[in-house]
Structure formats: C-alpha cells, structure tokens
Design brief:
The protein is mainly β. It has one helix at 32-35; strands at 3-6, 9-15, 22-26, 45-49, 52-57, 60-70, 82-88, 95-99, 102-106, 112-114, 134-137, 148-159, 167-173, 176-183, 209-220, 224-229, 238-250.
Length: 254
C-alpha cells in the first residue's frame, strides 16, 4: 500500500471497508515515540526493500515490516492495522537503493555502503570491520506480588549455535549491574568455512543450545536481566530466556 511521511508519522492511503472512500491511516504507531522527536523530517529518505519500508534520517533507520501487520483494536476496520516496527541506530544513510539483490546506502560524506546478505559468513556480523554489540534486556521482574521478596536461583537461555558465538549475562540489582555468567564455548560448532583457531571446537552439533547455571540474588523486590555479545564477527541469535525464583516474606527495603 502507498505510504507517506507526515509530521504526525507514517501514513497509508487505504479504502473504507464499506464505502470504498480513500482515507489515510497511521502505520508508525509503534515507532512514533522516537520518530516524531527527530529533527528535519523533511530530509528523511524512504525506500522499500523486500517488503520492508525503510525511513532513514539523522543516523537512524525506522523500519516497518509489511509482512507483520496486527490490529490494535479488533473492533476497528482492518484498514487501521499497524506494522511491526524496528528502530536501528548508527546507520548514516542519506539515500538507499537496491543493487544485485542487496540493500545499499550512501552517506552525507559520499561513502557507499552495502548491507551484508550472507548469514553464514562471520564477516557479516561486523560494522565495516568494527564489532557490533547486540543485547537483549528484560524489564524489571517484579513477580506476582511486587511487594514480596524474591530470590532468583537459576538463569537459562536458548541460544542458536554458530561456528563462533557466545554470551555474557548480567543482572541489575538495586540499580547496579553485575555479571552472572559468561559462555563463549558451548554454542560453537566446527566449520571449515569459518575456521578460527582461537575459537576452535571439536563439536559438530549445530542445533540450538540450552545454557545456564545457578545464580543467587536474594531478598530483592525486583531484578532486571541482560544478555549480550559484543565480539567481532560473531552472530548472536537468542531464542529464549528462563528464570527461576520464589517469593517469600514482605520486602522491607534495602
């Protein structure tokens, strides 16, 4: 469907379900919090690549997935649907185009860059030779009753295996981050195509791995968790996060 940018967000031209009258409907509901705070919306550049609507300005990319449409209100017409949105940083795109099946962009300084399209190549997981920090962060976990003590006893993740991958897990307790565990070996498997002697493993198991251990976070009202990988040329595909905790007496502060 046709999309266009306004000072109120990205809109689509749609038809009323019954009358067929053309109207405009908001499509950037999930991105507007950041998008509408940008300076110079008139300088934004939009491009559609593989059913994805890319809108770039000020080093940020706002992406709408045309294949993931949801209705925010089931009683409303389908024309009011919203697309899944993605907010990306450190993408200095001034213009975008497609060439040989890949997405390219040019910067304001005249550089020409291409997004990698080879997921099996480890060099795809870097930014022009620099490492990319990828992380998943949970909201604060308050449990069923926010006013009770929590004791967290176990932490596990499901991680897609790769010839070079791993993770570091941290917890935020009383506002301070502390490392829980790290593992840069278990989820690796041997690959001739991506052989790196410093990351060598004898394992041939390329199935997803369940990795975790006991932890001890006692008598807190809440805790937040973060899993990250900031290593050069390492994919990081997190499938799931699991926690075990119990609630006991009333929280008395700390």
């Amino acid at each position: 469907e046709p999309l266009f940018l306004t000072r109120l967000g990205v809109y689509a031209v749609t038809s009323q379900d019954i009358t067929g009258e053309k109207i405009s409907n908001l499509r950037s509901f999930y991105l507007n919090g950041a998008l509408l705070s940008e300076r110079g919306l008139e300088d934004a550049f939009a491009f559609v690549y593989k059913d994805m609507y890319w809108l770039c300005l000020n080093g940020h990319a706002y992406i709408l997935d045309g294949l993931q449409a949801t209705q925010t209100d089931r009683s409303a017409p389908y024309s009011t649907r919203q697309y899944a949105g993605f907010y990306c940083t450190n993408i200095p795109a001034r213009v975008l185009w497609e060439q040989d099946g890949a997405l390219w962009f040019g910067t304001a300084e005249g550089k020409v860059c291409r997004f990698c399209t080879e997921p099996g190549a480890l060099t795809s997981y870097s930014d022009d030779g620099a490492p990319v920090r990828a992380c998943w962060r949970t909201p604060d976990v308050f449990g069923k009753n926010f006013y009770r003590n929590k004791t967290f006893s176990r932490f596990y993740i499901g991680l897609a295996s790769a010839s070079a991958t791993g993770f570091r897990a941290l917890a935020r307790v009383q506002g301070l981050w502390e490392e829980l565990l790290r593992d840069f070996a278990t989820a690796r498997y041997f690959s001739y195509a991506n052989l790196t002697y410093s990351k060598f493993t004898y394992s041939n198991d390329d199935s997803p791995r369940t990795i975790g251990d006991k932890i001890r976070i006692k008598k807190v009202d809440k805790a937040g968790f973060l899993v990250e990988n900031g290593e050069l040329n390492e994919p990081f595909a997190l499938d799931s996060i699991a926690l075990e905790f119990v609630e006991t007496g009333h929280y008395k502060g700390g």
